[in-house]
Design a protein that fits this description.
Two copies of one chain form a homodimer.
Chain A lengths: L3 H6 L8 E6 L2 E7 H4 L9 E3 L4 E3 L6 H17 L10 E5 L6 E6 L3 H4 L2 E13 L2 E9 L10 E2 L2 E4 L6 H13 L3 H4 L3 E12 L2 E13 L13 E8 H10 L5 H13 L10 H7 L10
Parallel strand pairs in A: 1-4, 7-12
Antiparallel strand pairs in A: 1-2, 3-4, 5-6, 7-8, 7-10, 8-9, 8-13, 11-12
Amino acid sequence: MTYLRHLEACNRFDPERFLPLLLAGRRVGFVRRDNARALEAFAHLFRISSDAIAFADGIDGAEAATAALGEATDGLIRAGVFDKRRGELFAVTDGWRGPLLFELDRGAVPFFGTRSYGVHLNGWRPGADGPDLWIGKRAMDKKIAPGQLDNLVAGGMGSGYGAWETLLKEAAEEADMPEALTAQALAVGAIRYRTELPDGMRDDVLFLYDIQTPTDFTPRNTDGEIEDFRVLSARECLALVRETDQFKFNVNLVLIDFGLRHGLIAPEDQDYLALVEGLRGSLIRGGR
Amino acid sequence: MTYLRHLEACNRFDPERFLPLLLAGRRVGFVRRDNARALEAFAHLFRISSDAIAFADGIDGAEAATAALGEATDGLIRAGVFDKRRGELFAVTDGWRGPLLFELDRGAVPFFGTRSYGVHLNGWRPGADGPDLWIGKRAMDKKIAPGQLDNLVAGGMGSGYGAWETLLKEAAEEADMPEALTAQALAVGAIRYRTELPDGMRDDVLFLYDIQTPTDFTPRNTDGEIEDFRVLSARECLALVRETDQFKFNVNLVLIDFGLRHGLIAPEDQDYLALVEGLRGSLIRGGR
């Protein structure tokens, strides 16, 4: 099997199956055509045509759009279209670190197909055969990817949090890492994917960090999201990535990126350029 | 000033100013429209129309295309369109590690606008303020970028050489590195750009390597291409990248990539995603 299949699996997005969501003429999300019907109940909030969903006239600023999405979120939950609020607001901006367009509940993000940002931290230490990696096993009661393998730390970026603040917060919650330790993490790049999921889609940017953990460090999960942590050699992780689906879908991409940056996947691999470019959006359809 | 200006400078390619060069219906290069006139003398080799240059009927395999380009190269040199053969063949393939399409002299590559591959090696060692980098100053008699700053090792990939073989060869020539030392280099990714230059264009993929050099190592140039080597902190290099044009045009990109991978440029930079994606082809026009 190939590494590339994971990039393809994370970029299963066919714009034909979705309607662009427009705010003041700008695309800010994608709603799957079959989901769009559920928005017909909110004619005062959205204008739905055969080729787009636009916020209704007068809804053109951040405050109005946020209020409209909040009302729609509650209505969609009542109608059973999706579960519940996650109780965490995500900010949708005009490009990375651009002006705020609106906020919406995290639970509504897949339905509206808005861009979201997250952080993933590779915890590594020198091993017998190159770097070893700290790998978490996700709790069996997680809604997404229960029991699958994960990075040392990962989390979505809530409204008001930057990448670095999210990293510090998630590292404390997920791996009991004191801030002074997490502060040794290095930013090492970012990856992108856009893919259809049962509940809508994900249009994700993940900021990636590496940290060389001290020998006396053992992560300890504090929020119940991770069942246990183990140490696997990075080569072993990459073999699992290649041959199995034990890792959470997007963690495969983070590990492929780790392999590309640490000499574990080399230009002699026929897919090398497709991997390097595919992690940064070359497979994305429907515009940037 | 910004890092991004270097990515823009390395992606100044306007497809409108060029004609695609077609082999058996596939685009294999780009010839600038004003240069295309010089090919009219070779009507038995090329069919020139207002929207493309195609190899003449019957020239559809690697051997025939290589012969045609060799004949055209000699004719163009006689006509004074470009200087001389470089005496080194570059292979043009159907994608990275794909089947050979044809070979042509390195000196003819900008004129025909074919894809070429190269390697760059960042030599680093731990410094007082993060990594220090070995930086070469290019000889004043180099045709390209005389006197400008360069990586420890860099070179184009000749026909028959893979990325790793090119690295070993260039490291020996440019920095007197024994093979056992160079073998410690790690593949760390690749960057792409496509840009117009006075003699035509460059459509380059650079495979990047990092090596942590031992304390007793000092590079010594053996092929006259580098005047001297110096050690600068990576932060100092990035300040020079941002504020000056002392580095060779594409070396700026290699150093920006180094900064992105080593935590020296972080997501808090407004241009972060534009840099990450721009280094992997998001700014390229005219198709992949």
